[in-house]
Amino acid sequence: MKLLKTCLAVCLCVPLLACAGKKDDDYVDRPAEEIYNSALKMFADHDYTKAAKEFDEVDRQHPYSEWALRAQLMAAYSYYKQMNYKDALTALENFIQQNPGYKDVAYAYYLRALCYYEQIVDITRDQGTTNFALESLRDVTTRFPDTVYAHDAQLKIDLALGQLAGHEMDIGRYYERHGIYQAAINRYKKVVSDYQTTGQAPEALHRLVECYLSLGLTDEARRTAAVLGYNYPGNEWYRASYGLLVKDGAAPEGQEEPWLRQQIKKLL
Questions:
Q1: Whole-angstrom Cα distance, residue 168 to residue 82?
Q2: What pLDDT does 27 receive?
Q3: CA quadruple 78, 79, 83, 85: dihedral positive or negative?
Q4: Which of 52, 94, 103, 232 is most buried when burial is the number of CB atoms within 10 A of its CB?
Q5: In whole angstroms, what is the distance from residue 186 CA to residue 172 CA?
Q6: Is 234 strand, coil or helix?
Q7: Are 221 and 213 in contact (CB under 8 A)?
Q8: Does 23 score more than 80 pLDDT?
Q9: CB < 8 Å & 24+ apart, contacts of 242-248
Q10: Which tens digit of pLDDT belongs to each residue from 75-127?
Q11: What b/e readout covers 181-200, taking b as 16+ CB neighbours within 10 angstroms?
Q12: Are 195 and 172 in contact (CB under 8 A)?
């Protein structure tokens, strides 16, 4: 019995010793530059998963070196290339917080914005990620206005604003189709006030004209059509609005320009 217990103890210890030996074998102390270059090769071969792990190894073995700072950014970029946005954002947030004065921190802010931007979904779904993207993109243009990143960020800001405006329009149209005009009006007004530089603004004004006419608010419809014509002269949405007013008897047929000038004088 004593012999059996001894054998069991030895058998149990062997796997543990083997695991311990394997763990020691996994760690090989290497120069930072060697690990970094190895990671770069993996990245060049599009093996982003291994590259990220290898870049992380630079930081693990040489945490206070210049190589480690470069590797942290490249690890985040490797996660980004995998579309592993969660790990990329975690790495970037840590980098930004710990190295606010680093020479390439602008790129970290830009890459963070891209991680959010590339997760933007279509206008029919929740736009929480779009708001995060917009905030991050504005961070880039505000903090680093004279960089190439700021130029691209501004272009993406315009697209993100159009996305948010499109979301509001989608909801507004839904309410309008179901005769919930006040709720639709609130959505369209938000587009006009908050997203007036987007391509959605002319349609929002036209939809307001539709809603006001449906509610019998003829004066509001006229004023809104005048604003539409003044800000977007010749726009197809203005012509559509004018046609609705003519049909409703709220504007004279065939006198679009004189009528518009008259309404604009009233507004001014």
A1: 32
A2: 66
A3: negative
A4: 52
A5: 8
A6: coil
A7: yes
A8: no
A9: 244/209, 244/210, 244/213, 245/209, 245/213, 245/221, 248/213, 248/218, 248/221
A10: 999 999 999 999 999 999 999 999 999 999 999 999 999 999 999 999 889 99
A11: bebbbebbbbbbeebeebeb
A12: no
